């Protein structure tokens, strides 16, 4: 660890002012503190925002759900409205981490967490995400857990958040507050693909603060769920995962929202899978046909070619699980 200053923001206004001056926001700190300990992150000032009034879950006027940025993962997963209306979110949160971490980590911090790529966390390794222009050791190194979708020549690291996959599938919006006022960003635009600037991971401007994640209303009934495939059953990041939400009425699929995790540099929306489902009647053949396009555009590396078929099988299985219960 190295010297840094610490201040607790008593109000949103003072938090924004500290952020404008270059302070880094911290609440649960379950990721940032680890990165500071490993000297991957070296903020000069930490701004504790844990006391701000951003810890409520409310139903929106249109019937969606707004989850405050400082709601803990445990609180969100256990909330009655989340569990009954969007179980895919509850399941993703519960599969994300140990109970101790879920009790500390916040929704805002969860979607802001940085990759678990071993080369990113090893300050002696080349990593464009950590040190722009230094190279990407993962491309020619051991890359079994790395991304096959959304990669670039500069970065192949996966985004680690399970909850973000559920939010991406449900086409949530991230509410932000900054020096320029309030704005809402579609989730698909909030987390950025690496391209030539893998060090820029979110569509935040200097000093902006996440205030909430809003899930839009969907026709009822909406059946949903989250499936996570990993090397061991607990406390492990996804090799691949699938978030699925289906609205089936009159025996026909009217709405389909599908996204994958563990395979993309960001949570990966699967519009081709969704298009294959809309207007169709649920069947084993449909699940297989739709899931066959889940890995379209994949660019596997030497050690993670297995993820192509694993992703297709994971999506097919979760479509079947959700569809059979719809």
Automatic annotation (TrEMBL):
Q: Name one GO molecular function term.
A: oxidoreductase activity
Chain ranges of the FAD-binding PCMH-type domain: 1-220
- Name the domain of life: Bacteria
The family database entries (Pfam families) matched by this protein are listed as: CO_deh_flav_C (PF03450), FAD_binding_5 (PF00941)
Q: Which SMART domains match?
A: CO_deh_flav_C (SM01092)
Q: Which InterPro entries match?
A: CO_DH_flav_C, CO_DH_flav_C_dom_sf, Diverse_Substr_Oxidored, FAD-bd_PCMH, FAD-bd_PCMH-like_sf, FAD-bd_PCMH_sub1, FAD-bd_PCMH_sub2, Mopterin_DH_FAD-bd
What keywords tag this UniProt record? Oxidoreductase
Protein name from the UniProt record? Xanthine dehydrogenase family protein subunit M
């Amino acid at each position: 660890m190295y010297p840094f200053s610490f201040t607790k923001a008593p109000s949103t206004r003072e938090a924004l002012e500290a952020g404008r001056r270059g302070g880094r926001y911290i609440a649960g700190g379950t990721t940032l503190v680890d990165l500071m300990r490993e000297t991957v992150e070296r903020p000069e000032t930490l701004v504790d925002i844990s006391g701000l009034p951003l810890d409520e879950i409310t139903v929106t006027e249109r019937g969606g759900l707004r989850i405050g940025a400082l709601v803990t993962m445990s609180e969100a997963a256990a909330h009655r409205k989340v569990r009954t209306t969007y179980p895919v979110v509850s399941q993703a949160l519960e599969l994300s981490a140990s109970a101790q971490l879920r009790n500390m980590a916040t929704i805002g911090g969860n979607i802001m967490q940085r990759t678990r790529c071993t080369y990113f966390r090893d300050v002696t390794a080349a990593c464009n995400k950590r040190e722009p222009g230094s190279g990407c050791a993962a491309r020619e190194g051991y890359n079994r857990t790395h991304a096959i979708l959304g990669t670039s020549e500069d970065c192949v690291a996966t985004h680690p958040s399970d909850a973000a996959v559920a939010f991406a599938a449900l086409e949530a919006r991230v509410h932000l507050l900054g020096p320029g006022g309030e704005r809402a960003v579609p989730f698909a635009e909030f987390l950025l693909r690496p391209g030539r600037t893998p060090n820029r991971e979110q569509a935040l401007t200097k000093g902006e603060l996440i205030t909430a994640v809003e899930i839009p209303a969907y026709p009822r009934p909406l059946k949903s769920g989250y499936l996570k495939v990993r090397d061991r059953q607990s406390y492990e990041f996804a090799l691949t995962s699938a978030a699925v939400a289906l609205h089936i009425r009159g025996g026909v699929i009217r709405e389909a929202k599908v996204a994958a995790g563990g395979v993309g540099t960001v949570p990966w929306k699967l519009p081709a899978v969704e298009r294959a489902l809309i207007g169709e009647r649920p069947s084993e053949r449909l699940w297989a046909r739709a899931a066959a396009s889940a890995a379209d555009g994949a660019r596997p590396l030497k050690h993670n070619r297995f993820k192509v078929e694993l992703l297709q099988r994971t999506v097919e299985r979760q479509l079947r699980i959700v569809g059979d219960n719809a």
